[in-house]
Amino acid sequence: MRQARHPEVGEMALTEVMAALSDPIRVGLVRLLSDGRERGWGELRAPVAKSTLSHHLRVLRDAGLTRTRQEGTRCFVELRRGDLDARFPGLLPAVLGAAEQEDVGHQVGLAASPAGQRR
Fold it and tell me: What pTM value is reported for the model?
C-alpha cells in the first residue's frame, strides 16, 4: 500500500466532510471510532464486502475525517476528532448526537469486543 494522503486541517472542506457523512455505513464507522481508539481494519465489521468497506474508509480519509496508518501489512484507522473540532467546531458532536438518536450506522461494529461494549 502506498502512503495515504491526509488533508491538512485547513484543506478540509465542509462539502467533502458532509458528503462523506451521507452514507449510513460511514456514519457507523465514525460512531465506532468516536471512542478515540485506533482500530485495525480487520477489527471492523459492516454488512458490505471488504472492498466496499475499504472504499468507505478511503472516503472518510480523503475528506479528513480519519487518519490511516500502515504497520507492515496491517492498516489502522482513527477518527481525527481534534482536527475536526478545530476546523468545524460543534459539527462532530451534532452528527454523533443525531446518529445516536436515529440509530444511524448501527450495523457497523467490531469483530470481537469485550462484554458490554457496543458491537
Answer: 0.90
> In which element (H, E) is residue 86 found?
helix 81-87
Render pLDDT for 69-105 as a digit per residue (tens, 0 to 9).
999 889 999 999 999 999 999 999 999 999 999 999 9
Shortest CA distance to 60 belongs to which of 27, 109, 38? 27
In a domain, 21, yes or no: yes
How far the first Cα of the chain sits from its last, in Å, is 28
Cell 436515529 sits at which residue?
Answer: 102
CATH number for the domain harbouring residue 39: 1.10.10.10
d(CA 16, CA 25): 16
Q: Let me know if residue 26 belongs to a domain.
A: yes
How far is it, in rounded angstroms, from Cα 119 to Cα 113? Answer: 7
Q: Is there a contact between 27 and 95 (Cβ–Cβ < 8 Å)?
A: yes
Distances (CA, A) of 26 to 2, 10, 73, 114, 118: 22, 22, 23, 23, 16
